Amino acid sequence: MNEEFIAERIANLRTQKGVSARDMSLSMGQADNYINNIENRKSLPSFPAFFYICEYLGVTPKDFFDVDAKNPGLLSELTDEAKHLDNNALTHLLGVVREMRG
């Protein structure tokens, strides 16, 4: 993992969320070019800012670094919802997911 990964991951997750870099920056209480500077590799977020970025994007830090998760925000939502299912429903859901993967 390097600066390029962090910049690209933020850009991808932000795009999935459907928000501009400017709007995200302003929503976080930062200058309007804050996220743009990170995505263009001009700066890196501080550690506390990284956690806030994750929160804003709806992902955990673990999800942020999980390169296999194409859309960690939706995956996290699905996991949260699945926690409330009984064994029968979970088995059915697992079967559907396996069938969809082919």
Explained architecture:
This protein is 69% helix and 0% strand. The chain is mainly α and 102 residues long. The radius of gyration is 16 Å and the shape is elongated.
Order of helices and strands: HHHHHHH
Number of helices: 7
Query: What amount of the residues lies in strands?
Result: under 5%
What is the alpha-carbon Rg in Å?
A: 16 Å
Instruction: Please mark out the parts with pLDDT under 50 across 5 or more consecutive residues, or reply none.
Output: none
Quickly give the structural class. Answer: mainly alpha
How far do the termini sit from each other? 31 Å
Helix content: 55-70%
Shape: elongated
Mean pLDDT: 93
Number of strands: 0
Biggest sheet descriptor: none
Present the secondary structure layout:
Blueprint (H helix, E strand, L loop, with lengths): L2 H15 L3 H7 L6 H6 L7 H11 L3 H5 L6 H11 L4 H15 L1
Question: Could you give a quick summary of the protein structure above?
Answer:
The chain is mainly α and 102 residues long.
Q: What attributes characterize this protein structure?
A:
elongated; 0% strand; 7 helices; 102 residues; mainly alpha
